[in-house]
Amino acid sequence: HSKECGRGTFSYFDEKMNAKAAERLILHGGLRQALGRDELSLVYQPQVNLRTGRVFGAEALLRWTPRDGEPVSPSRFIPVAEESGLILPIGEYVIHEAFRQARRWCDAGLPIQVSINVSGIQIYRSDLVATLAAVQRDTGVAPDLIELELTESTLMEDVNAAREVLDALKRAGYGLAIDDFGTGYSSLAYLKRFPLNKLKIDRSFVTDVCSNAEDRAIARAVIQIARSLNHRVIAEGVETVEQAALLRRHGCNEAQGYLFGRPMAADELAGLLDAPATAARHHLERRSGGA
Ligand code: C2E
Ligand code: MG
Ligand code: MG
Ligand code: MG
């Protein structure tokens, strides 16, 4: 029907939309087989306490490498997984695997807290509480070693339903963090209604936190909000010693980013537990005079 419009504008959009739809269709086809073909895996990015410099936890991040192709970035395939509902089995895989890894670390004498990204679909369209309970029972991992990362937009989709789920998760003993804080639609009034433990300052405010006064003001405001509400606060995307020192000076508890380590294989993270943390600690102490 685009021809009837005469100007070509519509066919241009049609083409773009077709290209996008085609890409999604291809990704969807591949993603549907990914679990069965063992193409999914988790990598772990260290999370560091800014006061002690110690690695206390790791965020589990999903990776997809199709058997006959290049790795696909989660920012491309997660939206497709969410739209198609494939995020439900994929999310269960992530939960299983993250708990199994937490268990392995525990058995090795390394009680590393594992953060798991949870999509809104899992909150609203699955029995997340029951899934976690079953996996927790099977693996015997203490719930306080598991943190769930949710986004503001997810929680705002249906505040009452989200609150019920979060209350149950809190009762079960899981840590609850808001991911990418400051980038979603949210109302500060709702912050107090959810039983949260942690706010995660989005990377977009961290990147230029040393050079941009607005970003610094926002980062400081988020730190203040978190502290006033008795939540912990972690900065994501910390790449330089300067960023880490500044955030620490302003009261940020924790950090995650390439400075401390890229997302890596679980064994690698265990091996790095002492060395890089110690290096980062020395850096921080030199920069900000200890304490
Ligand atoms: P996120 O949860 O905010 O994860 C942080 C992202 O920032 C990761 O990208 C990580 O590799 C990247 N990152 C960490 N430190 C730095 C840094 O210092 N500099 C820069 N430039 N980037 C850094 P990744 O692994 O590509 O994941 C992208 C997003 O995909 C995640 O954002 C999350 O929203 C989603 N995702 C990943 N794994 C899962 C999963 O298992 N389930 C769900 N539902 N979503 C996931
Ligand atoms: Mg996250
Ligand atoms: Mg994040
Ligand atoms: Mg992010």
Automatic annotation (TrEMBL):
Segments crossing the lipid bilayer: none
Stretches assigned to the EAL domain: 24-277
Domain of life: Bacteria
Entry protein name: EAL domain-containing protein
Residues of the whole record sequence present: 669 to 959 of 971
